[in-house]
Specification:
The protein is an all-beta fold and 306 residues long. The chain folds into 3 domains: 90 residues, Immunoglobulins (Immunoglobulin-like, Sandwich); 76 residues, Immunoglobulin-like (Sandwich), CATH 2.60.40; 76 residues, Immunoglobulins (Immunoglobulin-like, Sandwich). 2% of the residues lie in helices and 47% in strands. The chain contains 1 helix and 23 strands. The protein is rod-shaped. The relative contact order is 0.11.
Length: 306
């Protein structure tokens, strides 16, 4: 803005004069624009909420995990840290808080404290993680004799050893376990004749799988021998026998002494007929009875020839 000032006056000349000079007024101070609402407040606000969508989380050793990305509200989080360290193979991104990786070791269930912070403060959350072994996938094969003898002890069943970290739980239907529970091999006592089923369940921290083998319990052989104490020389009407049992085989033998005899019929059955020798004296009759499990019993008796 320009101002005019009169600085001289000449009356003699009959003139009134005015010498005009510029005078500059001081410039006004600049006006600063108002700040955006909340612009400074956000950076200065501490985080108010932070958590992970997958917690508790159960992972499998050797299998890459789906990234676990945290969510939060409040101030912008600028840094993340975790204590204690995550299981081997898992990582926490210090900028985003994302947990990723492939676990390389088994880790029991535990809480890991994640701290999220910015310049105004911090917040913590407990992240619960477990790393399990891969579940067994090979179905166990139970090795067992297809036929076992009733009431026999010390019978064996086994399965393949699946290595450390695996437990073995056995069950026997038609018998009773006597030793080895919790290991890859057991001994057991068979029950009465009939079906037998032996099962094992393999378990580790990741899961379980079972296998079963069936067998048959067969009767024990009975070699109770019936025969005459004495026979007449050349008598061919006498017989010897043991109880007849299904599935048994019978093997008869004449063992000569001071006399002898000849089997005339029944070899391979539970009853034979024999012909006594002509000389007085004695001989033995022996029998071996064997069941389908391969268990046998033998017995013998002496016959006098008069």
């Amino acid at each position: 803005m320009r101002l005019l000032g009169c600085i001289s006056l000449s009356l003699a000349a009959g003139l009134i004069g005015c010498d005009q000079r510029d005078s500059q007024a001081p410039a006004p101070a600049p006006v600063q624009a108002p700040a955006e609402p909340g612009a400074a407040a956000s950076a200065a606000q501490a985080p108010s909420l932070m958590d992970y969508p997958n917690s508790p989380a159960v992972y499998t050793k050797g299998v890459a995990i789906q990234p676990n990305i945290p969510y939060n509200s409040g101030g912008v989080i600028t840094a993340y840290r975790v204590s204690p360290p995550l299981p081997p193979g898992l990582n926490l991104d210090p900028g985003s808080g994302t947990i990723s990786g492939t676990p390389t070791a088994v880790a029991p269930a535990a809480a890991y404290t994640v701290t999220a912070s910015n310049s105004a403060g911090s917040i913590t959350v407990a992240l619960n993680l477990t790393v399990n072994e891969p579940a067994p996938t090979t179905r166990p094969v139970v090795t067992l004799d297809p036929m076992v003898t009733a009431t026999m002890t010390g019978l064996a069943a086994s399965t393949q050893n699946q290595g450390p970290g695996v437990t073995y739980v056995w069950s026997v239907a038609g018998g009773s376990i006597t030793s080895g529970q919790g290991t890859p091999a057991i001994t057991f006592t068979a029950g009465e004749p009939g079906p037998l089923s032996v099962s094992v369940t393999l378990s580790n921290s990741g899961g379980s799988i079972s296998g079963t083998t069936d067998a048959t319990v067969v009767p024990a052989p009975d070699s109770t021998l019936s025969l005459p104490d004495a026979v007449a020389a050349q008598d061919g009407t006498k017989w010897a026998s043991v109880p007849e049992q299904p599935g048994m085989t019978y093997q008869w033998t004449i063992i000569p002494g001071t006399s002898s005899a000849t089997i005339t019929s029944g070899q391979g059955t539970s009853r034979i007929v024999f012909l006594a020798g002509s000389n007085p004296g004695n001989f033995q009759i022996q029998v071996k009875v064997q069941n389908q499990a391969g268990v046998h019993l033998s017995n013998s008796g002496t016959v006098e020839v008069k």
